[in-house]
Design brief:
Blueprint lengths: L1 H47 L4 H24 L8 H26 L4 H8 L2 H12 L6 H18 L5 H4 L5 H23 L5 H22 L2 H4 L5 H29 L1 H5 L4 H14 L5 H18 L1
Helix pairs in contact: 1-3, 1-4, 1-11, 1-13, 2-3, 2-9, 2-11, 3-8, 3-9, 4-6, 4-13, 4-14, 5-8, 6-14
Length: about 300
């Protein structure tokens, strides 16, 4: 009897230990995914200083697509085929919004906007998605969501205007800031379309196909931008930023994040996205020498508070 109890205890202890190891590894992957995404603002800033926005985006997603296709074939045996006009349309729309439009605007903005400021504005993505879901999908806007949206928008305004909102009315907002607003709109469209697309495609397959279609859309614009002539002049820093964006910022980041969504749910995995602007601000300060201004820190705090309030 005693030996049975001891065996039962040892089995339970082993299962609990295995569960803890599994959770630690999973949460570490989610945290690293958020850090990788925060680093894309610094890598993008470095790359955008020497490469055109379309060329940088094309090279990023060509590399990411190759890595994702290899990964999904190893994991699922083969890349699921897209069949039916409806699914093909969704893949093309995902590529057009989340890959083509978002990244062209993202790298255009980073040519002039510091990485930290850009990250604070882009951190409003969940807010814009919530508004889009209310407008187009009929999801309710609760009082708490409205309060969170108001706080988050105030935070973005503080960061963009460097603590002087009056400058917004006096033309103090640059085209880079306008491009960041376009990033928010295109990513919200990508996310809302993704909800429809993933009813017939796995998240990883949807990301892989959207990266492939977006890269194809970016190619003619990258060629028109002079990529073939400029590519021979890229410095090692530019190639390093492209590798980081494709490998860590896209392939690993998306794979690990969707693994977390699959294992613990979107709500719990989504909490880790709040680390993205913090990582971007600290990385911009550490690697690019960007100042940690009071308005930037206050704006980031307000945005994170608003996002948390709206999605609690």
């Amino acid at each position: 009897m005693a030996s049975d109890c001891t065996a039962h205890y040892n089995t339970a202890f082993s299962l609990q230990s295995a569960l803890w190891r599994f959770l630690v590894i999973l949460y570490l992957k989610l945290l690293l995914a958020a850090f990788f995404w925060g680093g894309t603002f610094v890598a993008g800033r470095i790359g955008a200083a020497h490469a055109g926005p379309f060329a940088l985006a094309f090279l990023r997603f060509t590399l990411a697509t190759a890595i994702l296709v290899w990964h999904i074939r190893r994991r699922e045996g083969a890349l699921p085929r897209v069949s039916g006009s409806r699914n093909i349309l969704f893949v093309l729309l995902l590529g057009a919004t989340g890959i083509f439009a978002y990244n062209a605007l993202f790298f255009t903005a980073l040519q002039t906007i510091p990485a930290g400021r850009a990250a604070v504005v882009v951190a409003n993505n969940p807010i814009v998605i919530a508004l889009g879901a209310a407008l187009f999908l009929g999801e309710p806007l609760t009082r708490r969501k409205c309060i969170g949206i108001a706080i988050s928008v105030c935070g973005a305004l503080v960061a963009v205007t460097r603590g002087d909102p009056v400058s917004f009315l006096q033309g103090g907002v640059s085209w880079g800031d306008v491009a960041l607003v376009g990033c928010l709109a295109s990513w919200a469209a990508y996310s809302l379309l993704g909800k429809k697309a993933m009813s017939s495609l796995s998240p990883l397959a949807a990301v892989t196909w959207s990266c492939a279609s977006g890269a194809c859309m970016l190619l003619p614009f990258a060629l028109h931008e002079g990529m073939l002539d400029a590519i021979t002049t890229y410095t090692p820093d530019v190639w390093a930023s492209i590798f980081y964006l494709g490998m860590f910022g896209t392939a690993l980041g998306f794979t690990w994040f969707y693994e977390g969504v699959d294992r613990i749910g979107a709500a719990k995995a989504g909490v880790f996205i709040n680390f993205v602007p913090i990582t971007a601000i600290l990385s911009g300060w550490l690697f690019l020498g960007e100042p940690l201004s009071p308005s930037l820190i206050l704006g980031a705090a307000l945005v994170l508070t608003g996002v948390y309030t709206a999605n609690r």
